[in-house]
Amino acid sequence: MFLYLNGGKKPVTLDMDTEQGRTLFTELVESADLVVESFSPGYMDGLRLGYGDLEKLNSGVILVSLTPFGQTGPWAAYQATDLTINAASGISYVTGYPDREPLKEPGHETDYQTGAAAFLGAMTALAYRDVSGIGQHVDVSAQEAALSTFSPQFLGAMHSGSSPTRGSARLMPCKDGYVSLNVRHDATWEYMWLFFEEPEMIDDERFATAPDRRRNIVALEDLLEPRLARYTMEELFHGLAPLRILVGMVLEIDRLLIDPHLQERGFFVDQTDPELGKMTMPGAPFLMSDTPWQEGHISLDIGSDNREVYCGLLGHDDAELGRWKEQGIV
To answer: Angle between the 186-195 and 233-240 helix axes, to the nearest 10 degrees?
Structure first.
């Protein structure tokens, strides 16, 4: 995971609690476009490295700060984890079964959503700086980043006057796994029964309209289970998807790695580390016609680029670097 998140970066060590460490940091800031930090609010100011200080060194620099609840507000000083943010953003409220306790999303989704929000804020600030020459402080709140992905349920509840319900369509078992199935529109409802070769089911009054199908979802799922059990995931996906029916296969990790669609698009890429060897990792979630993905610098050794950065980029000599290492500054 460390290699996946830090490929293409030059890892250095630096103790900014020391005067020399802060001096080296300011030297880096003088030629930087972005400074990204995730300390508690006020920590950078306490080091005399807050946005006001950085702006004096480089008027165009952009400081991006990622915190659980932002730089301001009554919760600003509170710490949090992905679990906390799932709860505080409302995501947990709509995750899980209606008759059970709220759940968090799998993995660390809100952490990635916060990173994506920080990236978007940074790129927007850079675009503005290219026009105006002015940098700025981008204040990213993990709670707000997660809540923005929850906006459909939030807006629906706000304008309907009712709270969103927990849970929706369940995953349905088939011959060799599970599929998701959504027959939202009347046309797809008809196509599904034609696929099952049971056209007489189209006129079942319990499921005549989309609201009827939502209201009688349990009965509908009971009706579909024995039909789906006759088919494999592949048969259902390739049989129903061309009919514009929203169907998805529940793919395991091993299956994803050999999926022909992802292989043709080159999504998974190989990275090489001197210690760990070749590893397969997810690539970029988009394709660019002029700048395709390529393997970047990758290292598990934090500090492996100290010499390149402090001597090559900033112009210090090896003697200084050795002295700073002995003093624990780098």
So the answer is: 130
Asked if residue 295 lies in contact with residue 269, where contact means CB atoms within 8 angstroms, the answer is yes
Task: Please name the residues in contact with 62: beta carbons below 8 A apart, sequence gap of 6 or more.
Answer: 33, 34, 35, 122, 125, 126, 129, 135, 136, 137, 138
Burial category of 223 from C-beta neighbours within 10 Å (exposed 0-12, middle 13-18, buried 19 and up): middle
Residue indicated by tokens 């930087």: 32
188 shares a domain with 158: no
Owning domain of residue 59: 32-167
Q: What is the pLDDT of residues 77-102, one digit of tens each?
A: 999 999 999 999 988 988 888 888 99
8 Å CB contact between 164 and 157: yes
Domains in the chain, number: 2
Partnered with residue 141 across adjacent β-strands are 67
Is residue 324 within 8 A of residue 20, CB to CB? The reply is yes
Query: Across residues 219-240, what is the average pLDDT?
Result: 96
Q: Which of 132, 167, 202 finishes a domain?
A: 167
152 and 195 belong to one structural domain: no
Higher pLDDT, residue 164 or 264 = 264
Which structure tokens are listed for 46? 């306490």
